[in-house]
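Service request form, structural biology core

Requester: graduate student, group of Dr. S.
Request type: structure prediction, single chain
Budget code: on file
Notes: please return the result as structure tokens.

Sequence provided:
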Amino acid sequence: MNEKYVAMDVHKASVAIGVRDAAGKYIMESIVETKAITLLEFVKGLSGTIHLTFEEGTQSAWLYDLLKPHVAECVVCNPRKNKLLEEGNKGDRIDVQKLSQLFQAGLLRPVYHGDHGTRALKELAHCYESLLRDRTRVKNRLKAIYRGRGISCEGEGVYNPTNRDWWLAQLRERGVRQRADSLFMQLENLNAMVAEAQRQMLAESRKHKAAAILRSLSTLGPISVALIIATCDTPHRFRTKRQFWTYCGFAVVTRSSSDHYFEKGELRKRQKPALTRGLNRNYNRRLKCVFKSAATSGSRQGPFKPFYEQLLARGLKPDLAKLTLARRISAIALAMWKKGERFDPQKLK
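Core staff response, request fulfilled:
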């Protein structure tokens, strides 16, 4: 069969491309400009069945949408798993040679890329979170001014616009006072922008059927639901709840060694338990934050509070109990989304 395995090393100005045939022979190499027209011309100029790969990065979503309709297979690979690229010399031509070799051998770990009508919600969620980070940065800078001059500013009172003149009057230096006034104005503008971004994100999330389903789970608010849909895209990405736990950062990592031994010629397994090394470190930060917040809320009130209290009564530490509750809430949310069913508190029993 005339199959070609194409690897791309994408940069801001140029793209290095390497091509191998089905036998693994390196047959072509090229460098093109990072533009849609040039990339499409190169791909359409290849004959046979095209398998394409490139690493996850800033431009991966754009490239996937651009090139996926024109190839038989498009794989966005995880650069953290490509250990071969870290060995020996490094360069654009060397990287595409190694990447095409891994691709042709089937050794790449794919990263999910898909679109089930959530592209707009993804962009709005990114905008909302970026504005939140900007606002937090301005708040920290504002408080740093007062802390640096020994002025107590505990709580949220310093951010209240009605008390702005009083807080400015606490600063005696003219330059510092002007700087604080500028930060107050930035904060006021960012508050309005965050509110508008939140409104747009929630309006877009309500267009998805999953929003009403997930919202029936009392520990998940409308913002959390919007972020879950924007991040996951579809629940069918995850075959089991354990895969979802790994994506959320709730998978327990264990280590063991020398698990088997021979006794009188018979193979036996050691009874010692595997050592626990905490939770997995490669996870989605947004989802972990969402479900940790849901577990904190569920431990205080609602249908999950008895379950949390049972965990404490069994001797579990509060942080481990909240982790168990977060795993439970995430598993229920995934099952509800897959089945299209609303939350039923009776099923918790």
